Amino acid sequence: MNRASAPAQWRLLTRQGCHLCDQMAAVLDRGLGPRGTAWIEVDVDEDAELRERFGETVPVLLRDGRPVAKVRIDESTLRRLVERR
């Protein structure tokens, strides 16, 4: 039996006033949006566990709960991450 794998869950860890977070969000909009792939933004300062785990390092892109990119990502790297699934 051949089942299609479930779509990846993408979360972008950010914080208020972070210009790098805004830049990574724009890359996600361009790279994931046209594929119909949803992603959510999570403010690390509103989650004590995430704040403890990632500290000042934002943005962080998580795929299925695992970090796949920190601080910067370009569209070609994002495309490779999506296709690797």
Report on this model:
With 85 residues, the protein is of the alpha+beta class. It has a single domain (10-70), classed as Glutaredoxin (3-Layer(aba) Sandwich), CATH 3.40.30.10. Helix content is 36%, strand content 22%. The protein is built from three helices and four strands, in the order βαβαββα. A four-stranded mixed beta sheet has the order 2-1-3-4, covered by helices on one side. A hairpin with a 2-residue loop joins strand 3 (60-63) and strand 4 (66-70). It starts with 9 loop residues before the first strand and ends with a helix. The mean pLDDT is 90.
Characteristics of this structure?
85 residues
Please describe the topology of this protein.
Blueprint: E1 10-14, H1 19-32, E2 39-43, H2 48-54, E3 60-63, E4 66-70, H3 75-84
Parallel strand pairs: 1-2
Antiparallel strand pairs: 1-3, 3-4
Helix pairs in contact: 1-3
**Which oligomerization state do the chains in this entry correspond to?**
single chain
For the record, what CATH class applies?
Answer: Alpha Beta
> What is the average of the pLDDT values?
90
Rounded Rg: 13 Å
Care to count the β-strands?
A: 4
At CATH level 2, the architecture is 3-Layer(aba) Sandwich
Task: Give a brief rundown of this model.
With 85 residues, the chain is of the alpha+beta class. The protein has helices spanning 19-32, 48-54, 75-84, and strands spanning 10-14, 39-43, 60-63, 66-70. The protein has a single domain (10-70), classed as Glutaredoxin (3-Layer(aba) Sandwich), CATH 3.40.30.
